[in-house]
Design brief:
Blueprint lengths: L19 H5 L1 E2 L13 H4 L7 H4 L19 H17 L4 E10 L7 E11 L10 E8 L12 H31 L10 E8 L15 H11 L16 E7 L17 H16 L33 H4 L5 E4 L20 H18 L3 E2 L26 H5 L66 E9 L3 E8 L5 E8 L8 H10 L10 E6 L3 E7 L3 E2 H8 L7 H20 L2 E2 L8 E3 L5 E3 L6 E2 L19 H4 L8 H16 L9 H12 L28 H4 L5 H10 L10 H5 L5 H15 L24
Parallel strand pairs: 4-5, 4-6, 6-7
Antiparallel strand pairs: 1-8, 2-3, 3-5, 9-10, 10-11, 11-13, 12-13, 14-16, 15-18, 16-17
Helix pairs in contact: 5-9, 7-9, 13-15
Keywords: Acyltransferase, ATP-binding, Hydrolase, Kinase, Metal-binding, Nucleotide-binding, Protease, Serine/threonine-protein kinase, Transferase, Zinc
Protein name: Peptide hydrolase
Function: When phosphate concentrations are high it phosphorylates the PHO4 transcription factor thus establishing repression.
């Protein structure tokens, strides 16, 4: 690690064994799109963690050969290279081994160019063609600093390299078993997206003189640039090797005692939570040897509002991040005391911490590969148990948070949950952990209600015929700035409801978002919009009573999707319902303005409904000039990003298009980190507009004349999972110019939905001819889990 301490801040964005016992603990349902499920306790106990034979500083097979100076271009680095490549050739012959070479001038070499060599190790299914597999990418740099003389860099980064060697060896036999079983069953190449693992040992991370943009990251910069400019064949799943990276996990400065690894990026906080969950469970089970003062990964309960927007520690991930790769940076802050000193050597390593990291990263990798375990009592020693049945799309939801703060595994106290886990999302500025959100800055409401203009001390008349005691309050579902959501039960009917309690401030009165939500939802009654049953007003509390649904689309994708991706028939059903809800809103002159998977609620019959109208607005008379601080960043239309305050219904259509693409891939289409970053990500795919292609572009407040010109990408190439008719609909929704976007009403008549529109025509004919057959099932029928969808 070469960034100076305190950590360099980069602001914004410029430009066997898996042992016979381990294998027998698995049931491989790779051919079926299955839900994410954490590894069982019994499985975690089988995860190998290495020992003295691997990590002894004098004779350990993995670590000791790396505890030497490894300056680029020196004999020590050549020995390190021979050790790394020799390990894979001897022990892991099924891994593909490649070098990526480059040269560069440095501050100490003058006009002479030094060689830099990145080692790329990859294990994909044997039937996979180039550009087809999604790759979990584990990374460490293997070079060391030139000064002080004799510097070894045990934490920086000999120990991380040895940890990755351990991970590769640990997962190798599992991968072999998985590939063999799929091939024997004739399932090889039948999945929409295969998964693999690649390990990068990067050269030239350290600065030769002083950390700058040009004197550092020599190997990372060369590799990222080469991959960006190496296209795959036209029919590949991915455009280039950069796009194959499902997650870029960078290990650095690991091996000292009491490390504190923060969650640096809100966009990958969900992955951090999975790793933190694994650490907490392993500690609770007594599987880790170190005795730190606090967990290695203490930020599992970090809220979205606590991220520092745009700051990070400079490291090898930067060139990849700037090109769109999702980053999980596993580096302690503050840095170890031995950082960049001669004491960063073998004797100063905390060996229990090194071995614990090897276990944690191994378990994280195995869990990422969608291993489905079977409880020991459900299997014999020689056979696998059958898949357990599922009872609905959300019945087996298990979140990272539900394990992270389990008292059996950790003494950590759980902070108030965010709206991500709410049945009815809380309409306030707190977003879900998986995506950045910008809050509304509207100054006034123009909705059709009896309320007066909002002032600092505004109240609204409510119906007080009911009392909060009419409902039994059950478990808490979510909490935001001004509201808390509970699951509840109507004491008279016994029906479940969602209770949103809004605490009234004596100075501010009723929050404007609550007033807006109540005003609009009283008018919006539709099968694809969450119903507001009642509003109960007391002296210090306002309670909104909503219909209860089982979860949201994001949770459904996480639990029932294959790496988050859903099957096409389910996507079509959800998109049809989403557009029906949007159409009703727009016909009633309402903009939702915050459409995202977390705000689309789903019941156990597969019905989808729009929720969280806290940012919604009526449009039309008397004004239609709105705030541009709306819509979660990833789903925000380009005209809003550019500062437009005169947008219309087209902003909801853009969001719907982003959601459609995400359901097919399991990942956001435009996962930006800042407003500028979001604009660039959109232009990279949709093409950079000009005044000729978008008249009036240069008049937007956020327009910049220096934007790089990107060519428009073929959506069919970027999203090969979508059929041609679906691509056409998506293209109609994702138009840069708002006036060119399709309306919700037009989208519902698109040929992609013929199977839903045709039964309506058939029903009309059936009234004239009773002998007509029954129409095929529509979207309103019960929706089974992904694993059973073949029977639907």
């Amino acid at each position: 690690m070469a960034s100076q301490q305190p950590p360099r801040q980069v602001v914004g964005r410029r430009a066997p064994s898996l042992l016979a016992g381990l294998v027998l603990a698995l049931r491989l349902f790779v051919a079926v799109a299955s839900a994410y499920k954490p590894l069982s306790d019994d499985f975690l106990k089988l995860v190998p963690g290495g020992g003295d034979a691997d990590f002894d500083i004098h004779n350990g097979e993995l670590l000791s050969p790396l505890l030497i100076p490894r300056v680029p271009g020196t004999p020590g680095q050549i020995k390190a290279q021979e050790h790394l490549i020799g390990f894979f050739q001897r022990s892991l012959p099924k891994w593909e081994v490649r070098w990526q070479n480059s040269t560069s001038k440095t501050p100490v070499s003058g006009d002479r160019e030094l060689p830099f060599a990145n080692l790329i190790l990859r294990r994909e299914p044997p039937w996979t063609k180039p550009g087809q597999a999604n790759l979990l990418t584990l990374v460490a740099h293997y070079d060391s600093k030139i000064e002080p003389k004799g510097f070894v860099g045990a934490t920086d980064s000999a120990a991380p390299c040895a940890i990755l060697l351990h991970v590769a060896r640990s997962i190798d036999k599992y991968l072999t078993q998985m590939h063999d079983e799929m091939a024997a069953a004739g399932e090889g190449g039948t999945l929409d997206m295969d998964m693999g693992v690649q390990i990068l040992f990067l050269d030239g991370e350290e600065a030769f003189l002083q950390w700058t943009d040009t004197d550092s990251l020599y190997g990372a910069r060369a590799l990222a640039e080469e991959w960006e400019n190496t296209p795959f064949p036209a029919m590949s799943n991915f455009q280039n090797p950069l796009r194959q990276i499902s997650l870029f996990v960078l290990l650095d400065l690991l091996g000292s005692s009491n490390p504190r690894v923060s969650s640096y990026f809100q966009t990958t906080h969900w992955a951090y939570q999975k790793m933190a969950t694994i650490e907490g469970r392993m500690r609770g089970l007594g599987l880790l040897e170190s005795k730190p003062r606090a967990p290695f990964l203490p930020d599992g309960g970090k809220l979205a509002t606590q991220f520092q927007g745009g700051s990070m520690i400079g490291d090898d991930h930067v060139p990849f991040m700037y090109r769109g790769a999702p980053i999980l940076h596993v580096i302690p802050s503050p840095f170890p005391d031995v950082w960049h000193t001669i004491n960063d050597d073998g004797p100063h390593l905390d060996m229990p911490s090194v071995m614990d990291w090897s276990k944690i990263v191994t378990a994280f990798t195995l869990e990422w590969l969608d291993m489905m375990e079977v409880e020991p009592e459900a299997q014999s020693a020689t056979s696998f148990a059958p898949e357990s049945p599922r009872h609905g799309p959300l019945s087996q939801t298990e979140t990272a948070g539900s394990i992270l703060f389990d008292s059996r595994y950790t003494s950590q106290k759980q902070p108030p949950p965010t709206a991500h886990y709410a049945v009815c999302s809380v309409p306030d500025p707190i977003p879900s952990p998986s995506s950045p959100t910008v809050t509304s800055a509207d100054s006034a409401s123009n909705t059709k209600t009896d309320q007066q203009p909002i002032t600092p001390r505004h109240t609204v008349a409510m119906d007080t015929k009911r009392h909060p005691s009419s409902f039994q309050q059950l478990e808490k579902l979510g909490e935001g700035t001004y509201a808390t959501v509970f699951k509840g039960r109507n004491r008279q009917t016994g029906d479940f409801v969602a209770l949103k309690e809004i605490h009234l401030d004596s100075e501010e009165g009723t929050p404007s978002t609550a007033i807006r939500e109540i005003s609009l939802m009283k008018e919006l009654k539709h099968e694809n919009i969450v119903a507001l049953h009642d509003v109960i007003h007391t002296e210090n509390k306002l309670m909104l009573v909503f219909e209860y649904l089982d979860g949201d689309l994001k949770k459904y994708m996480d639990t029932e999707g294959h790496r988050g991706a859903l099957r096409p028939p389910i996507i079509k059903s959800f998109m049809y319902q989403l557009l029906k809800g949007i159409e009703f809103c727009h016909k009633n002159r309402v903009l939702h303005r915050d459409l995202k998977p977390q705000n689309l609620l789903i019941n156990n019959k597969g019905a989808l409904k729009l929720g969280d109208f806290g940012l919604a607005r009526a449009f039309g008379i008397p004004v239609n000039t709105f705030s541009n601080e709306v819509v979660t960043l990833w789903y925000r239309a380009p005209d809003v990003l550019l500062g437009s305050r005169t947008y219309n219904t087209s902003i909801d259509i853009w969001s719907a298009g982003c959601i459609m693409a995400e359901m097919f891939t399991g990942r956001p289409l435009f996962p930006g980190t800042t407003n500028e970053d979001q604009i660039i990500r959109i232009f990279r795919i949709m093409g950079t507009p000009t005044e000729r292609t978008w008249p009036g572009l240069t008049q937007f407040p956020e327009y910049k004349a220096g934007w790089q010109m990107y060519a428009t990408q073929n959506l069919a190439t970027i999203l090969p999972q979508i059929d041609p008719t679906g691509i056409d609909l998506l293209q109609c929704m994702l138009q840069l110019r708002p006036e060119l976007r399709i309306s919700a009403q037009e989208a519902l008549q698109h040929p992609w939905f013929d199977e839903y529109n045709y039964p309506q025509q058939q029903q009309q004919q059936q009234q004239q001819s009773p002998l007509m057959p029954e129409p095929p099932r529509g979207y309103s029928q019960t929706l089974p889990s992904q694993a059973n969808y073949d029977g639907f």
